[in-house]
């Protein structure tokens, strides 16, 4: 039987259903059967998502990511995460990396939002770098690696980001 990948929203909904079943006197095993997951999955989900609210999860999804990878070594040179990212933010990151590491042989980029893509194209032309743009349906190795990295970071950093969001909410005046 093929395993179903649950979205964070589905996981939170299932955990709430399990919590209600437990509060109603069911055992953990019965609650797991009710939400159709194994005990190990339930325990893993509970450790990762316990106490997560949907609004925090929604805000996490609204974040914009800028992973910059070295295509040869697969090293993550920079990972910028912001609530919103302008072309100036992207160019600032690229300028910093060029200053730290020197000029790249070429820069490969997706098209991204139009205003960012145009600003990056202009910057690359101004600097005289070679370009490789990723078209739609591109099936190379770099873009999937970046997407895998983002998914991995989504999973592994979820608790840290949620903790930071919660701390920020507590620090904001009412």
SSE arrangement:
Elements: H1 8-23, H2 28-35, H3 39-49, H4 54-61, E1 64-69, E2 76-82, H5 87-101, E3 106-109, H6 114-127, E4 130-133, H7 142-171
Parallel strand pairs: 3-4
Antiparallel strand pairs: 1-2
Give an account of the 3D structure.
This protein has 7 helices and 4 strands; from the N terminus they run H-H-H-H-E-E-H-E-H-E-H. The chain has 174 residues and is an alpha+beta fold. It folds into 2 domains: 8-51; 60-169, Nucleotidyltransferase, domain 5 (2-Layer Sandwich), CATH 3.30.420.10. It has a two-stranded antiparallel sheet. Strands 3-4 form a two-stranded parallel ribbon. Strand 1 and strand 2 form a beta hairpin.
Q: Largest sheet, order of strands side by side?
A: 1-2
- Using only C-alpha atoms, the radius of gyration works out to 21 Å
Q: Share of helix among residues?
A: 55-70%
In total, how many domains does the architecture comprise? 2
Counting copies of identical and different chains, the oligomeric state is single chain
The CATH topology of the largest domain corresponds to Nucleotidyltransferase, domain 5
Strand content: 5-15%
Shape descriptor reads elongated
End-to-end Cα distance: 49 Å
Total count of helical runs of at least 4 residues: 7
Top-tier CATH class of the largest domain: Alpha Beta
Coarse structural class: alpha+beta
Which residue ranges are poorly predicted, with pLDDT under 50 across at least 5 consecutive positions?
Answer: 137-144, 156-160
Mind summarizing the main beta sheet? Answer: 2 strands, antiparallel
Task: Please provide the ordered H/E string of secondary-structure elements.
Answer: HHHHEEHEHEH
Determine the mean pLDDT.
Answer: 75
The assigned CATH architecture of the largest domain is: 2-Layer Sandwich
């Amino acid at each position: 039987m093929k395993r179903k990948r649950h979205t964070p929203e589905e996981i939170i909904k299932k955990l709430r259903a399990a919590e209600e079943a437990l509060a109603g006197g069911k055992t953990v095993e019965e609650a797991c059967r009710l939400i159709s997951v194994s005990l190990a999955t339930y325990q893993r989900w509970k450790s990762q998502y316990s106490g997560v609210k949907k609004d925090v999860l929604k805000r996490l999804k609204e974040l914009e990511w800028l992973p910059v990878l070295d295509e040869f070594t697969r090293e993550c040179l920079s990972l910028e995460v912001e609530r919103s990212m302008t072309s100036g933010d992207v160019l600032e990151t690229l300028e910093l990396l060029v200053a730290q590491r020197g000029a790249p042989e070429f820069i490969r980029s997706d098209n991204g939002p139009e205003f960012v893509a145009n600003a990056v194209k202009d910057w690359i032309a101004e600097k005289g770098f070679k370009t490789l743009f990723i078209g739609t349906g591109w099936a190379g190795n770099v873009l999937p690696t970046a997407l895998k990295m983002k998914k991995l970071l989504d999973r592994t950093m979820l608790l840290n980001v949620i903790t930071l969001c919660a701390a920020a909410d507590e620090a904001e005046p009412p």
